Amino acid sequence: MITDEKIKEIIAEVVNEEILEVELEDEIEVETTTRSDYITAAYFAISSVESMDTQIMTREDSKRIKRIIRKSIKIIDDCIGEMHDELFEEDEES
Questions:
Q1: Which of 72, 70, 71, 66 is CA-nearest to residue 52?
Q2: Which of 33, 42, 55, 65 reaches 20 to 30 Å from 21, CA-CA?
Q3: Dihedrals φ, ψ of 86, to 5°?
């Protein structure tokens, strides 16, 4: 015969296993952004604002457009620099 305590132990084990599974799923879920994703996003940011006439905008909007372009160029430069370093890194044994 199964006692109440045994039933409680079995339920506790099942609940603990379900909790562990839920926690593992949350820990495993990882999204990565590749360098090419960053470059693509920066390129599209530049493309979306480059044809805007900053002469007819407010001063703040004009600064915002220039800042978007400047930051996007920096993102592209950093990503290209990282890729270059990775491709052409010298062997540490040499």
A1: 66
A2: 33
A3: -70, -40
